[in-house]
Design brief:
Blueprint lengths: L8 H4 L21 H12 L4 E6 L3 H9 L5 E7 L18 H5 L5 H9 L5 H11 L4 H13 L11 E8 L7 H8 L3 E9 L2 H4 L1 H12 L2
Parallel strand pairs: 1-2, 2-3, 3-4
Amino acid sequence: MEGTGILYDPLLKLIPESIENEVIPLSQFQSKEPALQAIELAKTIGNEETVIFTESYSGLIAYELCKLESPSIIHVFFAAGFLERPSLISKFSQILPLTFLRWKLIPRGLLSFLFFGESSKKELVDLFYRSLSQVTNKTLRTRLNIIAKAKRPKERINQPVTYISASNDWLVSESSIEVFEELCSNLNIVNLEGGHFIVQSNPEKCWEQILNVIAL
């Protein structure tokens, strides 16, 4: 589950055809609120046993999905995820000048470092811009506003959870993991080298974690 699905390209290239998978872009949901999006997602999944993999913002939807206690959800991955406002800077994210991104005014090396943990990931920055081009400013503003106002939830979830923490995450603070430790009854924490977009920074290691679960 990801904003447009485009950013999952590096991971999808590693998944063999024999393993059934589906990327669910957030744009397919009718609602803009994570709790209502989770209800839509539950209807899509139905009774089929499913492993959910989320990155960053989409983890908010996965948490709401877990609260519905569907027996179909057998494992959930939160890659660089958060359940409350993830950092001080995110408090002001809704006023981010999106035109700076649209017009590519921010140096690529800086974006690469902030998003992917290294300043030389040009191909990943290009992938980010491809994804950005598919999302309107209105949609981005809505998501940034949800992030800025996100408050720590209280309801525990019982599904097996793997939290993937990125070594060079400048957008989500380490304290975000504490929320998962508090609310997840069955939690495994994995630390991987890479930036906030850890699936793109380190797709091989992310795939290894998924494979460890589906091979059980």
